[in-house]
Design a protein that fits this description.
Helices cover 64% and strands 0% of the residues. The chain is mainly α and 228 residues long.
Length: 228
């Protein structure tokens, strides 16, 4: 067995002890000085256990991590310029595709209006025929009225509109998404504004008890730090 293989082998007793540590920690209580010292020893024992586990794994992880990072760096050295070129090319396609889509929309709208105008003209022609027939009937000219109604109104063909056909690119199509830009930050509703937690924490750590931030309560929390 190689040195690295030996490093990543920890004994079954160590494995069992590590996995049982959370359960053991939940069973601890601190109600007096003796129990406090016992828990402190438990914490120190845990830190020692962490050291043993790290000794078994950290070296090979470090070697793998370095190799992994180097491989990523070499790959990205070639991937990034290609991706940049692809994005530049897409940027050149987008305006043309948008213009093409605009022309199609406008042509479809013209065709729709032409159809509506033709239908409206036919409706008016029918109304005029019915009016003429009623006038003939009103004048007592039954034969004329029947003649008017028997004669069909001429079919009105809408204006011919040629609708451009979008170019077909296999696997490529235009996408549209909504975007935004802030024009006046003071008008943005409060729920949409994100608290800068890093900046707030920096002020709190620097000024501590003297930190004064409107709308924020600054207080001290007690934790435990064990050195060994």
């Amino acid at each position: 067995m190689s040195k690295k293989e030996a490093l990543v082998t920890i004994g079954p007793e160590l494995k069992e002890k590590a996995l049982a540590y959370p359960t053991a920690a939940h069973q601890l209580v601190v109600t007096n000085d003796k129990e406090l010292k016992a828990v402190d020893e438990f914490v120190k024992g845990g830190k020692a256990l962490i050291g043993e586990i790290r000794a078994g794994y950290d070296d090979i992880i470090s070697d793998w991590d370095k190799g992994h990072k180097n491989a990523i760096a070499k790959r990205d050295h070639y991937l990034k310029p290609v991706a940049e070129g692809v994005n530049i090319a897409k940027g050149k396609m987008a305006p043309y595709l948008e213009e093409q889509a605009r022309k199609i929309r406008e042509a479809e709208e013209r065709a729709r209006r032409a159809q509506e105008e033709a239908e409206e003209a036919e409706r008016k022609a029918e109304e005029e025929r019915q009016r003429a027939a009623r006038e003939a009937m009103h004048d007592g000219n039954q034969a004329e009225a029947e003649k008017i109604l028997a004669k069909p109104i001429p079919e009105i063909v809408p204006e011919t509109v040629v609708i451009p056909k979008a170019v077909e690119l296999k696997g490529t199509h235009a996408t549209r998404r909504w975007a935004y830009e802030v024009t006046n930050i003071d008008l943005v509703p409060r729920p949409l504004l994100m608290l800068d937690k890093v900046a707030v924490n920096k002020i709190v750590q620097e000024k501590q008890v003297d930190a004064r931030i409107p709308g924020i309560r600054v207080f001290q929390k007690t934790g435990v730090s064990s050195g060994g």
